[in-house]
Amino acid sequence: MSGNRLLLDTNILIYLSKKELNLEDFASKDDVLYISVITLMEAKGYLFSNKKEEAIIDALCNNLIKVYVTDEVIETVITLRKKHKIKLPDAIILSTAIKNNLKLITRNSKDFEAADPNNLVVNPFENS
């Protein structure tokens, strides 16, 4: 009965807040949802067009399990950035997924392709 462990990228939270994506599009009731603290900072710092979208982000961020940057994540970030051209926030988010055995849910899967050694990245907009 245990589901998948899913790490939501910032863009997924934005699409959810704008009602351009539904949780049911990529997650089941048995899945456990996480966010990186990087995603938390990016999402809460996003300039929303209205208060309703911002309230949805606040509710999501308050109800998702936060994953913090550990020494293991830092070492993986350094390794990824030495081997691949990947932006620092993306490297932190991907490393968080790798070290915590989480599937990364993002629309920007191309940003992670070269650096994704375990095929952890899932784009819910593909095949939909």
Number of helices: 5
Per CATH, the superfamily is 5'-nuclease
Number of domains: 1
Can you summarize the main beta sheet?
Answer: 5 strands, parallel
Radius of gyration: 14 Å
The end-to-end span amounts to 25 Å
Q: What is the share of helical residues?
A: 40-55%
CATH topology (level 3) name:
Rossmann fold
Average residue pLDDT: 92
Extended strand count = 5
Give the overall shape. Answer: globular
Order of helices and strands: EHEHHEHHEE
Within the largest sheet, what's the order of strands? 3-2-1-4-5
> What is the name of the CATH architecture?
3-Layer(aba) Sandwich
Structural class: alpha/beta
Classify the beta-strand content into a percent band: 5-15%
Low-confidence stretches: none
CATH class categorisation: Alpha Beta
Describe this structure in words.
The chain has 128 residues and is α/β, with parallel strands linked by helices. It has a single domain, classed as 3-Layer(aba) Sandwich (Rossmann fold), CATH 3.40.50.1010. The protein has five helices and five strands. It has a five-stranded parallel β-sheet with strand order 3-2-1-4-5, with helices on both faces. Helix 1 links the parallel strand 1 and strand 2. Helix 1 crosses helix 3. The longest helix is centred in the middle third of the chain and has 13 residues. The relative contact order is 0.20. The model has no long low-confidence stretch (mean pLDDT 92).
